[in-house]
Amino acid sequence: MERRKEDNYFYQLGKLRRRPLVIAGPCSAESRDQVLDTARQLKALNVDLFRAGVWKPRSKPGSFEGVGTEGMKWLQEVRQELGMPVATEVARPHHIDIALKHNIDVLWIGARTTVNPFAVQELADALRGTNIPVMVKNPVNPDLALWAGAIERLWAAGLPDVAAIHRGFSSYEVSEYRNVPLWQIPIQLKGQYPFLPIIVDPSHIGGKPDLIFPIAQKALDLDFEGLMIETHPNPAEALSDADQQITPARLGEILDKLQVRSVPDLAFITRTEDLRQKIDRADREIVEALARRMRIVEQIGEDKRQNNIAVLQPERWKSIFETRKQWAKQMNVNPDFAAQLYELIHLESIRVQTEIVQQQVTDAKPQLKLPF
Question: Is residue 18 scored above 80 in pLDDT?
């Protein structure tokens, strides 16, 4: 089946106002008043889709895990009073049954569910034949295949309107982000499925209000199709994810500041194509230089083999990182990028030399003489 982005529900919903899709609402539906108050303010901002979680998976028992089915009635009221389509998260097949009975317009599958192919398949089976639009958050860990697999399971169940939500990835490294964006992963996903709308969740990526705007702008600069931003009338009193939610008024300010880049004209495309050809030639030169380097590495490996010298020379390792960072800085190249690049190059050099030196051990093994 041929898929076109223009036919997708999420693409059409945003393009009705000739701008990226905007999804907003509280992390959790906490009370009827909170849900309706938020929705009324978001309606005034022309938000396309109202979101609120009613089942909230939490790491530890005892924390707020959502109001459950009662919250569905409040979402129904939003839909009826304001004419806004509404969305909520589902994690179990019976969640889907309840959502469909309450005429929920859009469902999403959370990051903690996406990690489990069995759970995703159960949801896909429960959704078969419904044609309800579904969004799929990336798994907690940076696993592109797992994310793509969850999306493909929904397509295999016959669901035409699927979108991906990029909400960042967990990391043990210290970072300014709650979940590091690793933009290359959603970019790769878009490369695999150009027709798949990708919605970016700055709230979960940033984890704090002051990062929402720059992350949202980055998403638009990468030409992703929409944004999902958590909003609450009083974020300080929110029962879940209080640190990352913003008020509807603040959301309005952010939406007013965002810039949607224009479609390139023919002159721009021509200039860009010329520059890309220059990049291709530069990349070819880089690969040729790497090939020359590796041939020299092989010669060094052979010398070490013949003279029984250890492969890893710590002083050489240290020298490479210090000098390459200095060279990069002198040439206006990010020295941290150069350090990461040369770490990969040096590791490959060690691998190549290790194979050569280990050949000495293999060659030196005595041949077993059989007694016949």
Answer: no
